[in-house]
Amino acid sequence: MQIVSHGTSLTYHKTFLPPQAEFMECAAPEILFSGAWGCGKTRVLCEKILMLCLRYPNNRVGLFRRTGRAVRATTLRKLLEQDGNLPPVILPQLIRSHNKKESCITLRNGSEILYGGMDQRGTDGEAWFNSLDFGTIAVDQAEELTEDEYSLLGGRLRHPSQPVQQAILACNPKGKSHWLYRRFFIEKARERVLIRSKTKDNIFLPKPYLARLSRFTGPYYQRFVEGEWVDMEGLVYGNFDPLLHIIDRKPIPSGWALFWSVDFGYAQPYCAQLWAIKGDYPIDWDKPKLPVDIPKGSMLLAREIYYSHRTGDLHADRMVRIAAPNLVESTVCDWDAEGRSFLEKVGYGTECAFKEIEVGIQAMMLRIGNYTSPNDGKYVVPTLYIMDGALDELDERLQTDPATGKRRNVPVCTSDEFGFYGWPTDRAGNPKKTEVPADEFNHGMDTARYAVVRTDGYGSDGWIG
After folding, report:
1. How far lies 355's CA from each of 262, 314, 452, in Å?
2. Is the Cβ–Cβ distance between 441 and 419 less than 8 Å?
3. Cα–Cα distance between 105 and 98 in angstroms, integer?
4. How far apart are CA 442 and CA 234, in angstroms?
5. CB 225 within 8 A of CB 198
6. Mean pLDDT, range 221-232, rounded to an integer
7. CA atoms within 13 A of residue 340's CA, in its CB half-sphere
8. How far separated are the first and last CA of the chain, in Å rounded?
9. E strand or H helix at 242, and its extent?
C-alpha cells in the first residue's frame, strides 16, 4: 500500500478486484455490495472505511453489525488484524489510539471509527449511537438488520467533515421478500447503487476452498456461489443457513457424548450420521471463532456416510472405523430388521427411531433455530451444526449421471439436502404447506430427524424425557 499526503488529507493506492474497485470509487449516498462467499465483501467494506477516514480528516465513521459481539469477532478483526497473507486493513502506524472500552479507533489525522452492534445500549438505555453523528455508516452483514434498524442508522448521517454522507452496506444474498431486495433491486432509486459479485470474481481464492463451494447444490449454490437472490419459501427448513450452521472442523473432545443415527438404503443412499452432543470445552481446546458460542447441549454432525449401492455389512464396518477409538453410546435407526442386524453384529446396540414426521419437523425447526420466536419475539439460537468435511466419501453415482457423464443437480450429503427438502407443489409450482413434505431428497433429513427426536426425548405422546 502506498499512502500519499495531500495537505491535511491522505490518499492510498491498492489493487482491487473489479467489483471491489467499483465499490471503492462509488460516491452514491447508498451503496450495497451484495456478494457470494469469498468475494471479499467484508474486506472491501473495511477498505472503504479507511479510505473515507484518510480522505476527510476529523471524519467519523460508524461500523455496525447486528450484535456487538459479532462486529468484534469478525469485522473488527478484518480491520485490525492480519488476514492470511494480507496485512490488516489499517496499518498500526496510521492509528493514534484505540479505546476498546469506548469502541473507538482514532487515526492520526483525527478521523474516528466507532464500532458496535444494534443490540448495544448506552447508560440511558437508548441505542449507543443515538447522540452521535457520522459521515459514513458501514454495515457488515446488512441482511441481518431490520429495515427499521437501518432507518435508525440513516438518521445519524450528518457529520460535516464528509461533504456527501454515505451508507455503505455489505451483505449475503437473501430471498426476494427481504427489504434489501426491494430497496435496491425493485425501487432502484437514483441515489442507491447495487454492486454484485460472484465467488469466481476473486481470482486469488485457493483451489481447496473453491472445490468445497463447488459441492453446493440448488439454491445454496445460487446464493452463496453465484450471488443470486433466490427464494427458499418452499423449503421445509428455510431457517437453515450454511454460513451459520456449517462450522470449521475440530477434534471432538473425549468427554462429549456420541451416537449414530441411521437411515438404511441401497438404491437410494444409505445415510449414517455420527452426532456429538456438546459438553464443556476442555482447557486446551480452542473455541471456534464464531460470532456466538455454540451453546452447551448443541448437536454437532461430526461424520457422515451418504452412499448408495453398497451393502449394509460394509457400511456397518465403516461406521466402526470412523468412530474408533471413541465410545458410541447408541445407534438410533430405521426399523428395517436386516439393516439393524448388521449393526448389532459389529457391536452396536440399536433402538428404533421415532418416525412421526410432523413432530420431528417441529423438533428440527427448534434445533436449527435462526428465527424470531412468535411467542416472545426473541431470536432462537441454533443448537444444531454440521462440521465442514463431515462427508466420509463422495458417491460419484449421485454426483454424475452414468449415462451422460453430466453433473446432476442433486444432494450428495445431508447439508445439501436442506436446499432441496421442500413441500409438495401445485400445478403452478407453488408450495403447498401440507403436513408431510415431498418424499424426495430426504435421506439425510430423516436421519437427522431421528437424531433430534432421540436427543430431545420426543415420543408418540410428545415429550418423554
Report:
1. 12, 25, 11
2. no
3. 4
4. 14
5. yes
6. 84
7. 13
8. 60
9. helix 242-245
Summarised one tens digit per residue, pLDDT across range 71-80 is 998 899 999 9
For Cα atoms 320, 321, 326, give the angle at the middle one, nearest 5 degrees.
70
Residue 96 C-alpha cell reads as 493514534
Cell of 199: 465467488
Query: Cβ distance 63 to 138 under 8 Å?
Result: yes
pLDDT for 125 equals 81
Report how far residue 463's alpha carbon sits from residue 132's, in angstroms, rounded to the nearest whole number: 50
**Nearest CA to 217 among 441, 463, 451?**
441
Cβ proximity of 359 and 453 under 8 Å: yes
Q: Three cell numbers at 23?
A: 465499490
Q: How far apart are CA 155 and CA 130, in angstroms?
A: 9
For cell 456449517, what's the residue?
246
Secondary structure (3-state) at 431: strand
Highest mean predicted confidence (pLDDT) among 89-93, 242-246, 323-327: 89-93
CA distance 140 to 63: 8
CA distance 34 to 194: 7
CA distances from residue 186 to 170, 294, 296 in whole angstroms, order as listed: 18, 37, 42
| Domains of the chain, start order | 2-205 (3.40.50.300), 242-463 (3.30.420.280)
Whether the full predicted model's pTM is greater than 0.70, yes or no, is no
